[in-house]
Amino acid sequence: MNQPNLELKIRQQQKIIFQLNDLISVVIDKIDKTNPDFKKEVNETFESIKSKIYSISGNIKKTKYNIN
Amino acid sequence: MRIIKLSQEVKFAYEKDEHVPVIILKENVEYVVADFIPITLINQGLGDKMVVNSNFYNDDRVKKKVYNGESLYGKKLITFRNGGVGDLIFQLPAMKYIKDTYESNVELTICCNEQYLDIFKKIDYIDNIIALPLELDILLSNDYFVNFEGLIESSDRAKFINAYDSHAEKFFVKPKNLIPVLQSDEQYDKIVLREIDKSKINIVIGFQASAPIRSVHPDLYANLIAEVSNLYPNVKFYICGTKKQSKLIDNLVDALKSQAKVFNCVNWSKKYSELGMTISLIKHSNCVISPDSGLLHVAGGFEIPNIGLYGAFPSELRIKYYKNSIGLDSMSNCIFGEANKYKSCFQHGINSCPTAIKNAEVFSPCMNIFRPSDIIDALHDLKILN
Q: Which of B58, B280, B284, B301 could form a disulfide with B188 if both were Cys (CB 3.0 to 4.6 A apart)?
């Protein structure tokens, strides 16, 4: 698979993860309140996953236009 | 676009904000308005006052006035849109071309929000400027109209062609020169020339764009100004923003004074709130640094060296025709970036971007990638700093 298509596929998969995260947040809220340790563990796991998805990095591209 | 008419005079504002001008809609007058106006009226409990709320383009009176490239010799043409300084400037090269082509045998009118009329007041190739809201009768008194509402925000084509080209297409012209010709007010020029020290390197900073999605965090400017001032004491910074942003700019200036001992930085817009004064300041400055905002396009129009900070869409779609211009494009791994060479998301709107919201932030994370060193390098490239 060439690079642009691979990149597009990754971004599509990331979008799905993004949407799943919204769903999981709802599920976490529904976890039995009598088991707070389990809820805490699940929450921490998904916070860790979220931080990887929403951690934005990159670089700056400089373009010169009509420089004298 | 809609045509509305009210059963009684109404005063309202688009937002409940002291800085947003109040609009007066007169009783029994038909107005041409953007789609969000009737919605705003309804949301503000004024919907029952609307006796007419019809589709603008379906009106037979309007259909005859749509401009489709006809000869404009001896004709009157009006343009209108909501939108900020940049959006309004994009139409100017085409209008200048039309005025030159017909050797002034054409009457050109621009209709825009009142707070932006200063852009056009001194431009001699524009015959009339009027404030929104636009009365239908005024539109119909012209031979033709061109409407730019949503031209960039709602068009896929806007992802591929420069804003000046897309606006020229609406006029069915292809000017060779796509740099807007602007003119400042001489009275404001005199005040600016008394205010600034031309022996210094005067750099204007556009504090924020009209939406957080395109803006940078003030910390970037704080660090930039501190770093540059340390190395180049002959530089003076003028920070320009809206009235709403003035307090934030004050915070930035105060922090620079107290923490970094930097005193060469001014909240320009607090002292001079008139857009015309900022236009004159830019005209007499050495450089403008800004995210995509009207100030950058004013700089382009006066051929003042400029550095544009871009994230949501690429710099080449806005500033590629300007002289001595540098586009700094953020290329991030944001999942909303599309598979184009700049990985832009093309998000528009007045709110923060989805990734910022998920991160509980205001500013787009891709705009946090900028470092002062990126801008300082660009200042060297433009020979603003040696």
A: B280
Shortest Cα distance, chain B CAs vs residue A31, angstroms: 22
Chain A interface includes B366 (CB < 8 A): yes
**Other CB atoms closer than 10 Å to residue B100's CB: what's the count?**
12
Closest residue, chain B, to A15 (C-alpha): B335
Residue B323 is classified by DSSP as S
Tens of pLDDT, residue by residue over A28-63, are 666 655 677 777 777 777 777 666 666 788 899 999
pLDDT of residue A27 exceeding 90, the answer is: no
Residue A34 has a pLDDT of: 62
Scored b (16 or more CB within 10 A) or e, B2-27 reads bbbbbeeebebebeeeeeeeebebee
B370 CB near a chain A CB, below 8 Å?
yes
pLDDT at position A9 is: 64
The predicted structure's pLDDT at residue B160: 87
Between β-strands B201-206 and B287-291, what pairing exists: parallel, antiparallel or unpaired? parallel
**DSSP SS3 for B32:** strand
The average pLDDT across A2-22 equals 64
Residue B261, judged by CB atoms within 10 A of its CB (0-12, 13-18, 19+), counts as: exposed
C-alpha to C-alpha distance for B220 and B356, rounded to whole angstroms: 17
Give the per-residue pLDDT at B150: 83
- Picking from B88, B279, B269, the residue whose alpha carbon sits closest to that of residue B184 is B279
Task: Count contacts between A and B (CB, < 8 Å).
Answer: 89
User: Residue B145: CA atoms inside 13 Å, Cβ hemisphere, count?
Assistant: 25
- The pair of three-digit structure tokens given for residue B382, joined into one six-digit string: 């433009």
Sequence-distant (6+) residues with CB within 8 A of A34 are: none
- Residues of chain B short of pLDDT 50, as ranges, are none
Interface probe for B, chosen from A15, A49, A52, A56 (most Cβ of B below 10 Å), is A56
Closest listed residue to residue B309, CA positions, set B325, B292, B294, B295: B292
How many CB atoms sit inside 10 A of residue B303's CB?
A: 16
Return the C-alpha torsion angle B129, B131, B136, B137, nearest 10.
-50
Chain-centroid distance of CA B163 in Å reads 12
Helices (H), B171-267: 186-195, 218-231, 246-259
State which residue of chain A sits closest to B376, comparing Cα positions. A62
Shortest Cα distance, chain A CAs vs residue B322, angstroms? 7
Of A57, A59, A65, nearest to B325 by CB-CB distance is A65
Q: Say which of A11, A50, A57 has its CB closest to residue B337.
A: A11
Can you give the pLDDT at residue A2? 45
Q: What ipTM describes this predicted complex?
A: 0.91
